Amino acid sequence: VWGQPVLVSGWCSAYGRAHRLNDGRLMICYSDTWNAKARFSSDNGATWSAQKVVVKTYKSDGLTYKMDNPEFAQLSANNPYHPGRIIYAVNERVKDADNNNAYPFHISVCTSDDNGATWSSLGKIYSSNNVSGCYEPFVLELPDGTVQVYFADETPYASYQNISVIESKDGGDTWGTKRIVCYTYAKRDGMPTATIYDGNIYV
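The structure assignment produced for this chain is given below.
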């Protein structure tokens, strides 16, 4: 039996995701008027805090960088690098003055080490050199503390996508180079999610 839905944000919101934090609260993220935002609930979703802007859209060199496809994960309390750190990932979609797609697109992250009270500045971990872009990051922590960000990448293609992954071996401070996880010719292998079960990663 499901209860009545609770309106968390208004008409321009999209791509909502929710996870339970280590302290028991729920956190949601979503894109609202091209800003990446978050809210928190201490009563299992009955009520929610005021929305917090985690990453704002910004302009640079005549381009507008809009935040889309937000997703996050909180590292475990026994992570060897940054226990309890929240890693918040976004897809930066770049628009030119005519509101057309420009490039490069970016997969970027910011972090919080105080349960979402404050956030670091945004850092790019991958840039697509193709106008098609890269999209839909998903954050996964491995048992050894490695952090992975999966995403859909159209960089090598005209209209297809593969699933790629980038890893951090220090809790999100630095990131390695992209590896392709899977690619199905003539298909769009997009919007990845990943989980660990019985020692295996399932994507």
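Interim note for the steering committee: The two ends are 29 Å apart (CA to CA). The mean pLDDT is 90.
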